[in-house]
Amino acid sequence: MVYKCDDCHYATDIFLSLQTHRWTHVKKRPYRCRLCNYGSKTLQNLKIHFRRVHTKERPFVCPHFPCKFAGAYSQDLKSHIRNRHSKNDKTVSLDHLNNNRSRSHTHLKEIPRVLI
Ligand SMILES: [Zn+2]
Ligand SMILES: [Zn+2]
Ligand SMILES: [Zn+2]
């Protein structure tokens, strides 16, 4: 009987040797996924892996209506917005400026009326 390591090419016919060998991986990546062989150095990475691979959860939803994009990583959403909405963002900020300007215009008109 040959015991093989799941994470590398190590193989041995002594089960205890495999167990000892496995510790070298566990020490490096102590956070192990319970559904696959994935191991991570940090709990955060394991959580991200779990979300992306096993639950398909995508919590980072695009704020631009009616876009339905959702990403597993905040980085995904950032690059999506940069690629798809960078033009829209400019229009939005221009509209915002125009609104402010027209608002200040009405404000200016109101002042003389009060004076009269
Ligand atoms: Zn190994
Ligand atoms: Zn996994
Ligand atoms: Zn979008």
Automatic annotation (TrEMBL):
InterPro entries listed in its UniProt record: Snail/Krueppel_Znf, Znf_C2H2_type
One GO molecular-function entry: RNA polymerase II cis-regulatory region sequence-specific DNA binding
Compartments, as annotated in UniProt: Nucleus
Domain of life: Eukaryota
Record keyword Hydrolase present: no
UniProt keyword annotation of Cell membrane present: no
One GO CC annotation: nucleus
Keywords, ordered alphabetically: DNA-binding, Metal-binding, Nucleus, Repeat, Transcription, Transcription regulation, Zinc, Zinc-finger
Main location: nucleus
Residue ranges of every copy of the C2H2-type domain listed in the record: 3-30, 31-59
Protein family (similarity comment): Belongs to the krueppel C2H2-type zinc-finger protein family. Belongs to the snail C2H2-type zinc-finger protein family.
Name of the molecule in the record: C2H2-type domain-containing protein
